[in-house]
Amino acid sequence: MNKISKIVISLVTSFAFSVSAFAGELSVSGSAKATYNSVGGYANGENTIGIANELNFKASGELDNGYTWSYSVELDPDSTAAGGNALNDDSQLVITTPFGSVALCGSECGLSAAGDFNQNAYAWITDTGFAEGKVEPTNISSYQNMQYHTPADLLPFGTVLKAAYSPSASTVNNSANASNAASVATASSTTMYRIETKPVDGLAITASFLEQDGGNVAGKTDEQKHESGAVSIAYDINAFSVGVGRALVAPTLADGTAAGATTAESYENTNISIGFLVNDNLSLSVSNEKSEPTYMTSTTVAYEQKARSVQAAYTMGGMTLSLARTNYDNVSYIQNADVTENLFAVSMAF
Question: Under a CB-based contact definition with an 8 Å cutoff, are residues 14 and 314 in contact?
Fold first, then answer.
């Protein structure tokens, strides 16, 4: 952890006193998307219409020594029924040098490889709006963090190494000059690593690992530290794309945790996704995701959660129509908690 923070600080201070910036540029981006969602079965509810409501403000520039910088902050409402107050969140400042990139991130800059297997025509289905309860590896983007990335051309096969550190596992979007952050009861310092490589054309391999200390509570120790990791392999060949992924999660268990019937010791996820490009406009996909818990009590029956999704996307000029039908088995690892979801989306490019 200390090495990561020292690298970030030394790179920042190395040019902070000797360079000036040219005038930067500002741009605004977002998603012009509307969705219609129907859910039936165990979680039967009302059909839902959703409209994308986030805008991303991006600024970038170049220093007089050739270094570049970029900054972004998102504007999106909170979750109140009236539409919500406008909030600034998910901010990041990235400085790129010949020696690598330094990033300072507020609830942004995820490094997890858990979703890199995804080849779906519309979306990684367990990362959409329906709360199926699948436990995924923790991502450093959940916290305020600092990162270092090696240069893209430093290692063979386009290999890039990334390291991140969050000193307090704080999820508060602090403003500049913030001080004396409150201790978090359930988690503290968090370290995460990621490797990306492309050994042959069409093949991409990513892996990530995260380790997190327990909460900052006096006298508290952990029987099991939180650890989680993922490996994903994606391969494109002609009109086909195939992705497979494997993830393991070991949640924090406080010292003396009782072996309750629902106390999970670990989760094991296996994912596969296959995409097919019919033509320049139409793409199809199928995916299958499985997640199996292991409980502290050996007599507890573990029910494997599954998500099987069939998706299609059709592009007409600047408009894309997408359809996803997904069957979820044992939602939140509850036996016979089965759900069918139909999701239709209209997206506009701008």
Answer: no
Beta bridge partners of 215: none
Q: 316 is written with which tokens?
A: 């007409």
Q: Return d(Cα 21, Cα 63) in angstroms, integer.
A: 4
Quick: pLDDT tens for 216-247.
555 455 678 899 999 999 999 999 999 999 99
Characterize 321-332 residue by residue with b for buried, 16 or more Cβ atoms within 10 angstroms of its Cβ, and e for exposed. ebebebebbbbe
Instruction: Give the pLDDT confidence of 75-131 residue by residue, as tens digits.
Output: 877 665 656 666 777 899 999 999 999 999 988 999 999 999 999 999 999 988 889
Q: In this predicted structure, which of 250-259, 294-303, 329-338 has the lowest mean pLDDT? A: 250-259
Distances, alpha carbon 14 to alpha carbons 1, 9, 150, 250, in Å: 20, 8, 17, 39
Q: What is the sign of the dihedral through the CA atoms of 176, 71, 111 and 321?
A: positive
Would you say residue 132 has pLDDT above 80? yes
Does the domain made of 2-348 have the CATH classification 2.40.160.10? yes
Sign of CA dihedral 325, 328, 329, 335: negative
Which band of pLDDT confidence, cut at 50, 70 and 90, is reported for residue 17?
A: very low
